[in-house]
């Protein structure tokens, strides 16, 4: 998914870092099965929320860490959890994850959909996605099931 303020751009324009869009995923969940706070905890644990405009080797504003909320309650949950994690000293640096109301989403091109599932042997998947899934499985195996 893409998010940004200048309409639906092409992927090349987003990669140029000048559209204001970010590469994100939209997650639909059943709050009786998993709370918003739990999802936030997974998100903050699986990536580094202290590095601005970068995730692993991907650099640019389109790779910034961002959380979107639907309600004031979700906003409060995110602010509260990030404050707790910072107070606990979970990272050496402060969290720089942006917190914004849910904007318009644009679905990414078809070749980006289910990318890991369709391309598990591609270098990016092996060196970036697989380690994140392994971290997820190790850290959250008693609570969640990671589908491949």
Topology summary:
Blueprint: E1 2-3, H1 11-15, E2 22-23, H2 36-46, E3 54-55, E4 58-59, E5 66-69, H3 72-87, E6 98-101, E7 105-106, H4 115-118, H5 123-140
Parallel strand pairs: 5-6
Antiparallel strand pairs: 1-2, 1-7, 3-4
The CATH homologous superfamily of the largest domain is named Peptide methionine sulphoxide reductase MsrA
CATH class of the largest domain: Alpha Beta
Q: Would you identify the regions where 5 or more consecutive residues have pLDDT less than 50?
A: none
The helix content, as a percent range, equals: 25-40%
Oligomer: single chain
User: What general form does the structure show?
Assistant: globular
Using the CA coordinates, give the radius of gyration.
16 Å
Number of domains: 2
The CATH level-2 architecture of the largest domain is identified as: 2-Layer Sandwich
Distance N to C terminus: 19 Å
H-E order: EHEHEEEHEEHH
Number of strands: 7
Question: What are its keywords?
Answer:
single chain, 148 residues, alpha+beta, Peptide Methionine Sulfoxide Reductase, Chain A, 2 domains, 3-stranded antiparallel β-sheet, 36% helix, globular
């Amino acid at each position: 998914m893409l998010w940004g303020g200048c309409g639906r751009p092409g992927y090349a324009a987003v990669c140029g870092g000048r559209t204001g869009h970010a590469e994100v995923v939209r997650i639909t969940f059943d709050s009786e099965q998993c709370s918003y706070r739990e999802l936030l905890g997974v998100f903050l644990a699986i990536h580094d929320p202290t590095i601005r405009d970068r995730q692993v080797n991907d650099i640019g504003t389109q790779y910034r860490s961002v959380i979107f909320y639907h309600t004031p309650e979700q906003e409060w949950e995110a602010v509260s959890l990030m404050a707790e994690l910072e107070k606990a000293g979970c990272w050496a640096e402060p969290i720089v994850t942006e917190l914004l109301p849910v904007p318009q989403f644009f679905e990414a091109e078809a070749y980006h959909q289910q990318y890991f599932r369709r391309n598990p042997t591609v270098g990016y998947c092996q060196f970036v996605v697989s380690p994140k899934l392994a971290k997820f499985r190790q850290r959250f195996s008693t609570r969640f099931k990671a589908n491949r």
